[in-house]
Design brief:
This protein is α+β, with helices and mostly antiparallel strands. Helices cover 20% and strands 33% of the residues. The protein is globular.
Length: 153
């Protein structure tokens, strides 16, 4: 399974980035992330670390493996995540300069800390219907038999 995140809207002076998320080429939902600072996965790690602002930077553009079998200490403590997915939130692997990058629910880039928030961009600067979008995406991802990738463009 290939998820594709196309970053589409970045307003100058705003601390967030809006995107469209596709699963195997089919539109699934929108996303909100921290600001895209022009990082790419093939940049030297030292340069990524120089440009990155901790918890305020979108992950580098590139292609990453996504695991569905890691329990998030943060999200497993939240009743909804424990009931819905036993705290196993989609986890991006080997993101240069970043750790603990997840796909999860939220409303604004303040929910992100570098992660990808799913929902519908029906209000400027935020996403709505995040739980519904997360559940739909998560259930779709479970059908992939652990071979999931995300390409961020």
């Amino acid at each position: 399974m290939l998820l594709t995140l196309r970053r589409i809207k970045m307003k100058p002076g705003k601390p967030y980035q809006i995107g469209h998320l596709y699963v195997d080429g089919i539109y699934m939902c929108d996303t909100i992330e921290d600001i895209d600072r022009g990082l790419t996965a093939d940049m030297p790690l030292q340069l990524i670390m120089k440009i990155k602002v901790k918890k305020q930077t979108a992950i580098p553009r590139g292609k990453y493996r996504v695991l569905m079998n890691r329990v998030s200490p943060k999200f497993s403590a939240k009743p909804y995540y424990w009931q819905f997915c036993r705290g196993k939130v989609p986890y991006l692997v080997n993101v240069p300069g970043f750790e603990g990058i997840l796909i999860h629910m939220g409303t604004t880039q303040n929910s992100s800390a570098g992660c990808i928030i799913v929902g519908m961009n029906t209000v400027v600067g935020r996403v709505t219907s995040s739980q519904e979008c997360f559940e739909k995406l998560y259930k779709k991802m479970l059908t992939a038999n652990d071979d999931i990738w995300i390409e961020i463009m």
